[in-house]
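Next comes this protein.

***
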Amino acid sequence: MKDVLTPIEMRAIDKNTAYNHIPTLVLMENAGASIAKYIVEHYPDKKKVSIYSGTGGNGGDGFVVARHLLNYGYKVHLLLLSKPENIKNNDALINWKAIEVISTTTKNLKTSIITDSEQLTPDNSDIIIDALLGTGVNGKIRQPTSKAIDTINYSPAIRISIDVPSGLNPETGNVKDKSVIAHTTLTLHKKKTGLVKSEERYTGAIEVLDIGIPQVSEEYTGSGDLLKLKKPEVTSHKGDNGSVLIIGSNTDYIGAVIFAAEACISQGIDLVYIVVPETSASIIKQYNPEYIVRSIPGSILSMDGFELIKPLIEKVDSILIGSGAGLNSKTGELFNNIVKSVDKPIIIDADALKLVDKENIKKGNIILTPHAREFETFFSCELPKKLEAKKELLQKLSIDYTTTILLKGVVDIITCPDDYKLNSTGNQGMTVGGTGDILAGLTTAISTKNSLFESAYIASFIIGCAGDEALDKYGFKYSSKDILEFL
């Protein structure tokens, strides 16, 4: 697992923690308590603290810090840079309501609602805590937050930022407008990419605080990972939201590309091109008029179709090979030629795993989607029985072959050269024919906009959830067509 996270990865982990039955309110409480403890341990004699809070989760962390510091005997001035009714984060709102109650019972807490920059005055506190924006910065900073950043920076106080200094881009480390210049940044769970890339003068010393996120929320897939899926732009046109090419389905396995294609369409793919032998084409064309079907003469896929395939490869974002393709050596010649000559994402599934030479995949653009037997055949090695040993082997092979591997099993293992993920969604009913084709189609569709690694583990999570919903509705008598219903 990574030591440094992008903002979207951190948000996904937060949501995965809720998915794993630990409420985000608990994480906010843990964050605020950890920050307060840090201040008490490092600054026991500096008892006058100002906390500048925004209306998001970062501001909510500030509310919790205020509450805990009061219990340690600190005097706290909490400044909310908006009206309370603008607090949209539910966890932050709960903690603000607690602050409102506490403010009526102690003289050590002063609250100020700042709606105009003119309300801000020089701050001579011992410590200032920046809980304004955190990872929520987006372009030019509005008033009165902009003036608050100036007030913080001009103060002689010790300046501490929560998670990321407000104004600093949490992903790139750039400062587009202005930023809090912190003496210390207390970042939560793990460092963010922006902190690593930024100038030290903005972040000061960086301390990572544990907030109680369990390993399962980062190691296993969860609903938070769906946040990484790219949404269509308002200004997008046909083709902007993904186009794929699926090559497969000889006469004996016509349904394979249909399952894969339907999975692609379920993810909003604009254009689905399908290349199959002419003996399969007419049936596939009738299934869905959205498919753009091209046929190769004869009953098998071969190099005879490469000239037809080449211009389609130029048009699409990602390619799937193998679904129902059969094991003819001429098909293997076609697939190996595609793998060697194409730099776009290629998902190798089903029969292609028996035909493609593993020495041809070392290009960094390949996703393999084998089950256990296919894996052992492809890599000419035996899978260990224990999960940890399997994971280590897959990680090594991902590095050796510069590839992403999605090993299907009771627990799916997804590896790339520098990371891994596990998926436990799904059930034993998913051994029914067609599920592998659906997974391959999902992976292909997502890879048109996401990284290969993300595409593999998000697809694994989605089909597992769909299978679990099919089980809830139909029991173990469900089919792959039922799984498509829930995608």
About this structure: The mean pLDDT is 96. The radius of gyration is 27 Å.
